[in-house]
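Hey, quick one: can you model this chain's 3D structure?
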Amino acid sequence: MELSVVDLSRLQFAMTALYHFLFVPLTIGLSVLLATMETVYVMTGREIWKRMVKFWGTLFGINFVLGVATGLTMEFQFGMNWAYFSQYVGDVFGAPLAIEGLMAFFMEATFVGLFFFGWDKLSKRQHLAATWAVALGTNFSALWILIANGWMQHPVGAMFNPDTMRMEVTSFFDVLFNPVAQAKFVHTVSAGYVTAAMFVIGISSWYLLQGRHMQIAKRSVAIASAFGFASALSVVVLGDESGYEANLNQKMKLATIEAMWETEPAPAAFNVVAWPDMEKRENAFAIEVPYVMGLIATRSLNTVIPGIKELVDRSKDRIRQGAVAWDALQKIRANPAEADEDLRETFQQNANSLGYAYLLLPFTDTPMEATTEQVEAAAWSTVPNVWPMFYAFRIMVACGFFFILLTAVFFYYSSSGRLDTLTEKRRWILHIAVWSIPLPWIACEMGWFVAEYGRQPWIIESMLPTSAAVSSLSVTEVLLTLAGFIALYSVLLVIEIALMIKYIKIGPDDGEAAPSHQKPVRPAVSDATPVPAE
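Sure thing. Here's the predicted structure for all 534 residues.
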C-alpha cells in the first residue's frame, strides 16, 4: 500500500499524541493525590505523610518532565504538518491553547519548582499551597486543551468567512462551554485520577508482597483506593455523558462504535460482541442485549439511533448541498468585490455543508459536476473502519469496570483495617494489582483512539476533512520527521521506564531496611495492626 502525505501526517500526529498521553493521566492524577497526602501531613503533623509526598512526588517529577517535553512537539506539528488546518481555524483553535500556556502551564511549571525545592524554604502551609497550585494548574491545563479538542469534535461559537477563508469566533462563551468539551474534560480527568490510583495501589502492593515500606504502602493503598474507587465510578457515569453527547453531535461515531449498520426501532440493542464486515457492510455475527444502547445513548424509550447506512444516505444530501456552497465560494473568491448579494446568500444558505464538498475532491476537481458514483464514494468515506472502533471501545469499557472492582476490593480491606489479610492469606490480590498497573494506560489510549479515529474523515467535525488540512510536504519529508520522532521518543521512553524502576526499587525514605533476600516475607508483628485513621 502506498502511503500518502495525509496518511503519514496522521500517523505521525497519532504516534506523538498517544505517546504524550502516556504521561498526562499520571501527572493529572498524582498531582491531586500528592496534594491530598500533604494536606493530611499539614493537618496531623505526622512525618510519615511528608515522606510519602516526597516519594510519590519523585515519580511525579520524572513523569512531569517527560510529559512536558513530548507535549511541546505536538503544537509545532500544527504548523509543520497541518498548515491549512492552522490557517483555517487558528483564530478559534489558537485561543484555548494560548490561554493554556499563559494561565495553566506557567502556573504548574512555576509551582512545581516550589514543590521540589521549597521544603526547607517555605512553611508547611505555604508548601501545601504550592502543591495544590500544581494540581490546579495541571487540571486547568487539561481543561483548555480539551476545550480546543472538543471544538474539533463539535464546532460551535464560530462561523466561516468566505472572504478570509478562515473560521472566526462569534461567541467565545459557546466555545468555552461547549458540552462536548466539558464532557471530555471531566471524563478525561477522572481517567487520570484512576490511572494514578491504580499506579499507587500497584506499586504499594509490590512493597506489601516484599514486606518493605509497610506503613507507607498501607497508607498509600488506603488513600489511593478511596480516591480510585470514587474516580472509577465517575469515569463510567461521565463516559455515559460522552456517549449521550456523541448521539447528539457525532452520530456516525456512535453508530460505528456499536457496529450498527441498520437503523433499529427504538430503543436500540447493544452489541456485546460482533464481527463487523466492511466489505459486505454488515456484521458476520453479533450477540445483542435488547434496549440497552437506546437507553444509554438517548435516555429514552422512543428515540431512534440512526444506523450507518442511513447516515451515509444523509451524507449524500449534504454532499450535494455542499457542492452548491463550494461553487458559490469559488465565484466569490474569483471576484470578491463584485460578488452580488444573491451569490453570497446562496453560499450562506448552504455554508453548513461546505465541508462535505471537500469529500468529493479526491474523486473530482469539480464538485458541482460529481457523478452519482462519486457522491456515493464520498458518502461512504464518512464511515471509519468499524472493526477497530468497535473493539477499542469495548476494551476501554471492560478496563473501566475492572478498575471499579479492584479499587473497591482494596478500599474494603483498607477501610476495615484488614490489609494484613491480603499479605497473609490473599496475596493473589496483590499480584493482580501489580500486574494491572499498565491497564489504565491501555484504557486511556483506547479512549483517545475512539475519540480521534472515530471522528475521521473529519479533522473538524462536518467542516473540514483531514485530507484537506495537510501542509504541502513531500512523503520523504514526513517520513524523515516521523523516523526522527520514533527514534527520539523511543529513547525517552526507555529513560522514563528506567528512572521509574530505579526509584521504585529504592523506595521511600521511611527508615525501614530492605530485606537481604529476594523472597517475599510476611510483615513484622508491629505491622500487623490496622493502620490508624489519620
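One thing worth noting: Residues 513-534 have pLDDT under 50 and may be disordered.
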